[in-house]
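Tutorial handout. Part one gives the primary structure; part two gives the three-dimensional structure as tokens.
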Amino acid sequence: MSLTNYYDLMKPVIGFLGCETPKVWLDEALNNLELLMQDHANCEKKAAGTAMNLMFRYSFFTDLQVKLAQLVREEMLHYEQVLEFMSKRGQEWKALSAGRYAGILRKEIRTYEPEALIDILIIGAFVEARSCERFYALAPFVDEELGRYYRYLLKSESRHYEDYLALALDVAKTSKMKDPEEDIQGRIEHIREVEKNLILSEDDTFRFHSGVPSQAA
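Part two.
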């Protein structure tokens, strides 16, 4: 895929997000590639686990089952691939605590259904979109092999965010909400602001989805 095609692929992703990754985060990432790769592996495994949990919890949504099953397979494949990268580079697996990103986003989930599921799916879309944007931002600055892998991930990550949004709208329509599109758009705008603040504000813990490194803020 040419650079122009990569840019075209990324335009809707960047448009969906409220901001792009700050340069200071990229600088920190390039100085902490081993930590970044470890957390990337954790993110792939967590994404697969989240999708699997949704499949069991909401088994009565058929379309949800199919899309999430596909997502689980892809996320676990990516997890395996990152582990292979780590092994190839002599990097051992180490326990790594979670950053603040996902936990704070989950606080925005409403406590009643189907709104809770809709929020979970919208948050999933933002997580996937941010992952995609960060792979795109990192690819030109890491080594050739890793950059090629990050560009390879762009297509699937961008599709995942679109799938999550489509599922959120399907759930809203299936549940006969009064104005599903208005509800979805309102929640997207709200969660976009929360996610943007997480990316642009000072963060004490460097992770794949962390904000501005505290020493650079």
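Part three, for discussion. The first strand starts at residue 202 and ends at 203. DSSP finds eight helices and two strands in the chain.
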